[in-house]
C-alpha cells in the first residue's frame, strides 16, 4: 500500500464512526485549546514586560542595598546598639507599606567603591517635589519615577531623557497632560514646567524644567521621569540648609562595573559584596525574578492543559481499540490479501495522528480566535490604563509546537491499538463473528 | 507431468494445547494442477476450511509440507507470501467481507490498493472487473445497498481484479438463494473454463461439488477415500 493511500484511507476510516471520532476530537480540542490560550497569555505578558523593560538597558549596573540583618530573628530579642549603623530608611514609593531597609551611608559607598571590579558608585537619590505647574493653570502633585533614568521609556511623543545634557529635562506620563493643560502629547514637547520643592528648612523653591518627551503609562512605577541634572538640582535644593555634619543616608546605590565583565565575574562581584553585607542585583536579576513568577504561573496552567491532553490520549486509545475491534474482519481481509503487519500498524497510527491533528488544529484555531477577541475587549476595558498590553498573543512557532506535541501524544496513544491490529491473524479475524 | 500449483503433502493442523487440543487436520495430501477446478467437501467441523486456509497460505501447517509450484512454503519469506496472496490468489467468502459503507468500486480495488497500484489504474482495472460481472452501474453505490447476489458478484470482482492464478471460494453460494447461487456458480466455472483460473471451492453442497473436475472429501480431519467420485455422480437420492 502506498504512503498516500495509507493516509487517505486512515482519514476516511476516522470519519466512518463520526460520533466516536467527534467525541475524541472534543477531548483533544479542550486540551489543545487550554494549552494554546495559556501559551498565548505567556507570550502576551512576556512580550509586554519585555517592551516595558527591554529598555532597562544598563547592563553594567548593580543596584546595591544593605543586606537584611541576618541575626535579628524573633527569638534573639533586640540586637545590641551600634552607633555606627545608619538608621533604617523607607524604600519609598512602590515598596511594601511600612517596609524599611538599613540605609547606606557615605562610608558604605566608599566600601562598595573599593570592592574589586566596581568602577564607580552613585547613591540613588530620591527627590520628593511638592508640585508641578504649567502656565499658571494650577499646581498638581508630582510623583517621580526613580527608575526613569535607568529605562528607555515607551514614548508617545518627543525624545528620551538625556543624562549628559546640561538642561533640566522632564518626561511626563500621558495621564498628566490633560490636568496640566496640554491638548496633545506633541503640544507638551519643548514647554517649560515649574517644579516646586521644599528645602531643609521647609521653604518652597521653584525649579523650571523642559518637557522633552511624553511617556505611555507603564507598569514599572508610575510618575514623571527626571534626567540626572534635574534630579541633582532638586536634590541640592532639598539639602540646602542642612546642618553641617548631619549624615547622609541612601536607600540604594548604583554601582557600575566593567561592561565587558563575564557572568562569572559579575557573580564574583556580587558574592564579594554579599560578604561585606550588601545585597546586589543586576537589572537582569530584577527582570528575571519578575519573569520567573510569570513563568511559574504559565507553567502551572500548562500542566493542567497537559493533564487534559493525557486524558484525551486515553480517549484516543479507547476510540481506536473499539475501531480495531469493529474492523477485525476488515483487517483480517486486508492481511489475507497480502497486506503486511507494518502497513496495518501504519494505517491505525496514521488514524490516531489524524485525530490528534484534527483536535489540536481546531483547538488552536478556536483558541486564537477567542483569545484575540477577549484580548481586544480587555485591552479597551480592564487594561485600558495599560496601553500596548495585548494580554493574549500567539506566536506561530508555539502553536506549531502545540499541534506537533498533541500529534505525538496521539501517535503514542495509537501505538497500543495499532499493534493489536497489526498482530491479528487473518484466519482468526475472518472467523470472527 | 507439470509441477502442481499447490501440493499438500500429509499436512496436519491442530488448535489449542493440552486437554483443549483439537486436531483439525490429521494428515491430508492433495495436488492441485493449474487450470483445474476442485471441490473440498465436508460437513462443518470436518477440517475442510482449515485445509483451504493452509492451501491459501493463510496459516502454517503443524506437520507435513505445502509446496507452492514446487517450493516449500516454509522457505518463502513473509513478503513473498504476501505477494502470492495479493497477486496470485483471489478470495471469495461466504460472508462477503465487504466494507459496508464504502463504495462497490472501493471494495473491489482493495487488493490493488494493497499492492500499491496508482489510483488511475486502480479505477480502470476495478471498472473492468465490475463490467465483467455486470456490476459497472453499481460502482458508486455503497456496498451495503447491494442485494446478496450483487454482493457476491462484487466479491468475485474483487477476487478477479488482480488477475489471479487461483481463486479460493469458501461456501460461495452459502448465503444465496438457489437461483442467484446458480448464477454465481456459472460465473465461477466460466472463469475457470475461459481464463484457466484454478478454482478451489470449499463447500458442503454436493451439487456444487459435482460440477468441479475433482472432489476431495474431508471427514474428521482426514480424506474420506470411501466416497468415490462415482458415488457423487449417482447420488443415493436420500443422501443428497
From TrEMBL, chain A:
Family, per entry: Belongs to the ABC-4 integral membrane protein family.
Q: Write down what this protein is called.
A: ABC transporter permease
Source organism, top-level taxon: Bacteria
Please report the organism this UniProt entry assigns to the protein: Cryobacterium sinapicolor
Q: How does it sit in the membrane?
A: Multi-pass membrane protein
Query: What residue intervals traverse the membrane?
Result: 21-42, 296-324, 345-374, 394-416
Q: Per the database record, which ranges form the MacB-like periplasmic core domain?
A: 21-224
Q: Where in the cell is it found?
A: Cell membrane
Using the record's annotation, list all stretches that form the ABC3 transporter permease C-terminal domain: 303-426
Q: What is the lineage of its organism?
A: Bacteria, Bacillati, Actinomycetota, Actinomycetes, Micrococcales
Keyword annotations for this protein, in alphabetical order, are: Cell membrane, Membrane, Transmembrane, Transmembrane helix
From TrEMBL, chain B:
Which CDD domains does UniProt cross-reference here? ABC_MJ0796_LolCDE_FtsE
Q: What InterPro entries does UniProt report for this protein, alphabetically?
A: AAA+_ATPase, ABC_transporter-like_ATP-bd, ABC_transporter-like_CS, ABC_transpr_LolD-like, MacB-like_ATP-bd, P-loop_NTPase
Q: Which GO terms describe its molecular function?
A: ATP binding
Annotated ABC transporter domain residues = 6-240
Keywords, alphabetical? ATP-binding, Nucleotide-binding, Transport
Q: Which PROSITE patterns match?
A: ABC_TRANSPORTER_1, ABC_TRANSPORTER_2
Q: What is this protein called?
A: ABC transporter ATP-binding protein
Query: Where does this protein come from, organism-wise?
Result: Cryobacterium sinapicolor
